[in-house]
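Technical note accompanying the year-one report. For the benefit of new consortium partners, we illustrate the data format agreed upon in the data management plan: each record pairs a sequence with a structure-token string. No post-processing was applied to the example shown here.
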Amino acid sequence: MANILVVEDSPAVRMAIVEVLESLGHTVTEAENGRLAVEQLAGRSFDLVVTDVLMPEVDGIEVIKAVRRAKPDTKILAISGGAPNLPAGYALKLTEMFRADAVLYKPFMNDELRQAVGELVG
């Protein structure tokens, strides 16, 4: 099974993602913002990083850039529901520019998450 870092500032969304991933047998590490995620990336290796795009402190774009600098082979799944002044589609287009491997629009179904993760880490 995969070693996965989940970066999400909403506790409820993060908990739901972690629950799905752990039910599949993956080992999951949580970060409540991008700053904490970058710290986790400095000391550990992950097979997959699931990151929200719009977060306080350090956003998902910076997380993606940090992953690509430190561990370029790590798979990245970017997720976003957008914000009042930034539609989700635009936020996720930005992640593609920085080489996220896949994207999901919030809200997404558990099966969509399972499928995306399965395609990325087998």
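Partners are asked to follow this layout when depositing records. The beta strands are 3-7, 27-31, 48-52, 75-80, 102-105.
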